Fold this protein.
Amino acid sequence: MKPRSLRWKLVMWAALFAFSASIICVWATWILLRHQELQALDRRLGTDAQELFRDIENFQGVNKRLEVTERFVPLALRDRLVEVRGRTGEILYMSPNLSAPVLNDGIEEFHTREIAGRPVRVGVFRDNELTLHVGADLKDIEQLGWEIARSQVVVIPVVLLLIAAGSWLLGSIALTPIERIRRAAERITAERLDERIPSQGPADEIGRLIDVLNATFERLQGSFEQAARFSADASHQLKTPIAVLRAGIDEVLDQDGMSPEQRDRVTDLLQQTRRLTSVAENLLLLSRADTGRLALRARSFELRKLLEGSVEDAHILGEKRNLSIEAKLPETLPITGDRDMISLILQNLVENAVKYNRPGGRILLSAAKSGEEVSICVGNSGPGIPADRAPHIFKRFYRARGDEQVPGHGLGLSIARELARAHSGDLTLTKSQDDWTEFCLRLGKPIPTPTLNLN
């Protein structure tokens, strides 16, 4: 699932907060309004009760309150539930809408109870010998609550849309400086470490963030150039003594009088100096790639001939292991690039395909062209690369299989990928099954890279 952008998260959180706040406000408003309506109803019931007692007093007098008829009931109480009781609790009057006396539940203060499945507000009033129980149906108040709820069904979505639109607008305004910082930071690469994020506007949080990032890039550039300079200088300094050492060992080998055992030892020393020379040259090449000083001599040439040479190399290298070499190449494969660098990539891939193959195994080299992009795949039989080590195989000095008996320094794939990227392409591990491993190389137009002088 694709992660949501910060702008979308801001909109969703604002909408969620607004929705929750709206529900809470509606609920609180309804509770307060209902309480006020009940208080108003209680006051009306009290007023109506006083009117009933006053009419009975006027028509019957103080000592003649034994007969109560509907003519004493005020018009406001005739739709209510009414019970009038005497001194001993006997029923003197019961409204026609009551089939049985149900209002007397022993509670003196105003309260709400359910009668015949409907909520009723009940009040008790006393006047000398008479007790009046009045019940008022709460359907009007409940209806008011439903009307408020129905109105909010329309209002809340409109409010949410307005808040979402406002949040999106405010988020866009607030995140615009962040987006500019992101685009500026993307332009800062290993080849352009001198780039900085432009600092404009007030010294607010965004301005301070830009200052911190620029200071970080400044330190990073210094550390990177120092490390690259050390790698380049070390490689240069090693080449001369290694060359002198190789020349001395060659002179020793040319001398007569050595025993076969001594000659073998000196030959081993010569082989080790060649490995040192290879490591120094590889480190120099990587340091140039890191600092953008990898200058490519791009020209058009026929890549098929270079691939045929790689197939011949594979035949020679795999002869002792009885390897089967197959090639699937197009008739022509023109390309523009640095022939020597592409040859070095193919050399690394072919050597790895031979080194990590099994006796009697197979190597397949195939190539194809699509538009201006050329793809080359080199596959070999043999043990696959463990899944937990596959993501690290392009790291420098990393040995995927950890086999010290197989010669190598763990730099070949890293160099090959850097050279592929310099040609607007890439090198990837496309398959690593139990008995088959395959790398695919993509090559495009070489990237023009300025030559930088770290000295």
Q: What stands out?
A: The chain has a mean pLDDT of 82. The first helix runs from residue 6 to 60.
